[in-house]
Please model this.
Amino acid sequence: MSRVIGIDLGTTNSCVACLDDRGVPQMLAAADGERTMPSVVAWTSANEVLVGVAARRQAVTNAGATVYGTKRLIGRKVNADDVSWFARSAPFRIVAAANGDAWVRVRGDAKSPQEIASHVLRRMRAVAEEALGEPVTRAVVTVPAYFDDVQRQATRDAGTIAGLDVLRILNEPTAAALAYGAHRVGDGRRVIAVFDLGGGTFDISIMAVERGIFEVLATGGDTALGGEDWDRRMVERLADEVFDKHRVDITSSSLALGRLKEAAEAAKKQLSSAQSAEMQLPFLAQDQNGAPINFDRKITRAEVEALTRDLVDRLEQPCRRALADAGLTAGDIEEVLLVGGMTRWPQVQAQVERIFGKKPSKGANPDEIVALGAAAYAGILAGEGEDAALLDVTPHDIGIRVGDAQFSVIVPRNSMLPARARKLFATTQVDQKFVSIELYQGVSLDVSKNRKLGQVVLDGLPPGPPGSVRVELTLTLDVESILSVTARELSTGKQAGVTIRASGGLSQREIVEIITRRRAEEQPRPRPETPGEGQVTRVKTTDLPRLGPDGLPEA
Model:
């Protein structure tokens, strides 16, 4: 069978890895030698699809059809607060699908984040096939630990569209810990924290490692916090300065906004190791008199730190909550592992040290470590790598609607998978005929702010006064987070059940339609025929020789 690859599908960059012949995870490089690729997809005026460096290179002149940050949209509703913010600042249009999901309109066509992400995954697959010299169809794909079931399924759907059999959706912090070699610690139990701050998401996982067993004790995070937010703050400040000086709103120009964003991101990277950086953007825009606006400014790390202090502060609460959920204190953590490109920012590293009371480890490339861990786990699934057992948890509470809009938790967050929970209910009306139980996933006590998973209906209840009929609800979650629900009336034993497999927002029919359309678009176009190269000459039937009874042409 073909090899199993590990893919880190990132907000800003993506990369792919695989086990080598010695069973050691290795990054796979593209033909140009690059081991990470921008998670950017663009459509040209000729409807050609560009991915990675080629897409980012033309982003400034084709901003409206160059899509980045798809990971922030996948499996999300268009009216979510962070999606609404993204829609205001992105140079491309984010629109609502029929089911309320956030899609992107590109050159008149609405495209799902799954389809856009599939282009990145397909490029990662092509890189692997070129590097390995063989077809690749199976993969382990990583996601933030704090992704809910819908976001995970949407990522799996993107893999399907890319022609990949996604064997497992693996949490990024767990993959990073595996790649760090945290399971090679000898005897005894070791408690570590994996701090993962990437381009668009933040995760914190508290893990216990012992003799090749990775046990996630608690996880937390923020799927709307990442390096893109630092870039946005810088862009907003610089755009305000241009407006104050020239009375020109450059945010209304996708070309100027794209150039400013690109410069801000480059300056941020430089400021990770320097105290100041020069930003020079000639002919950024035109003033009200048509004269060119040349942007030339020195920006300091201290300025950016002041602009983003609240973003750094937001990193603390998920860490404190994860520690509390695990029943631990910061002093119980033996090592903090850094993952994600944004952990290079000195202010973030200082915050990590302040929260956990120790300097974090910097023993690996934070941009590549997740893909290496995914490859290591892919090897385990394929029986080619070292054995390691991963014991994961559910990142969000799972419960039911009670009353008008309240959320009652049945399976608490950070419950070890597989998990099972039971709860008894009593009827509230005389001769109540049925019960309808709606299931939700989330962290809010207001059920309307959580994700609805489905519902189970049990009818034909025996008659009786309020409270006389009791129904037992059983929730079971397997290691793939597939939820099975059973409602059983205790006196008669009658029951109803449902298995809830999270939908990523696309139906199976829509997925097949995308795949079929992509195949049709990729078929080679027939080139015009030239005389002497298979050209067909049309003739009249009267010009054709007649066949006689013996099948031979008549004279």
Summary: The first strand starts at residue 4 and ends at 8.
